[in-house]
Every structure is written in structure tokens, then in C-alpha cells.
Prior knowledge:
Blueprint: H1 2-24, E1 38-41, H2 43-48, H3 51-88, H4 94-147, E2 152-155, H5 169-174
Parallel strand pairs: 1-2
Helix pairs in contact: 3-4
Amino acid sequence: MKKFAIAVATASLLFGTASFAASASTQTASGASSNLVIGVIDLGEVLKNSPQMKLAADQLKKEFKPRQEKIIKVRNQFQKDQEKLKRDASVMSQADLQSLQAKVSDENRDLQRMQEDYMQDLQSAQQQSMQKVLQKIDGIVQKIATDGHYDLILQRNTVAFASPRIDITQDVIKQQ
């Protein structure tokens, strides 16, 4: 009985979907034509060609360059001290050896903390920049959809096939 109910429900669902698809290609009850206008956008291509994205990347690079240079400087000093420790450990006094070991340990801890903070701040800044660019692109897509009387715009990576005829990627790129 349970299997029969599942089979009936599945058949009803399939029939309902088929009748919906059939009705979508015909006149609706309100008399309006249901010819859908669909567009597809390749968001990756839009982002790749986005002047806002390039500007954001340049700004982030400029903003984070001093911190990156400081990390490199600290890393180089840490490596020099590590090499000195390996090279001179056998000839150093116990006090100098302990002092250098403590220094290397502190440098390692500081370097790791600096790198983690840098990466977290960089990722946060990248996300904020990306959000701003995506909002601008969304506004452009909304305008194209309104002006072009589109009913539906999909991202290319979410569909199995889309004809180049309905691709609006270049329209979005031109309006950036």
C-alpha cells in the first residue's frame, strides 16, 4: 500500500510538471503571453574583465604590501637566527645558546602570528571588495533585465547548456 501511494505521488508530480511545462508554452489564463525571455551570464568572465575587480586587486596589493614586506623581513631574520643556532650551537656558551634559542622561539611565534593575522585581514578585505563588485554587477544585471524585459537570468555554471544567443555576458561587461 505504501509503495502504491509513493508511485501515485510520483506520477502526480511528473504529470503536474509536464502540464506546467506545457502551459508555460501556451497562453496563460490572464491572456498574457508566457513566452519567457531568458538570459545567461558567465559571472567568471564578467569578473575577469571587470575594471572594478582589477582596481580592487590593485588597492589590496597596495594596502597590504607594507605588511607583506614586514613579514618577509621578520622571516629572513628568523632564518638567519636559525642558521646561526645550528651552525654555532656547539661552540656557544650555555647562556648564549639559551638566549638564542629563546629568541628563535619568540621570532617563530611572532612570525606565525603575523602571517595568520595577515591572511585573515587579507581574506576579509578581499571578501569585502568582492561583495562591492558583485553588488555593482547585480545592479547592472538588474538594469539589463528590466530594460530587456527578461523574465529569468541564470548563471552559466548552473545550467547544462545555454545557447550563445541568450548570453548577456558581454552586455554586462560593456556596462561596467
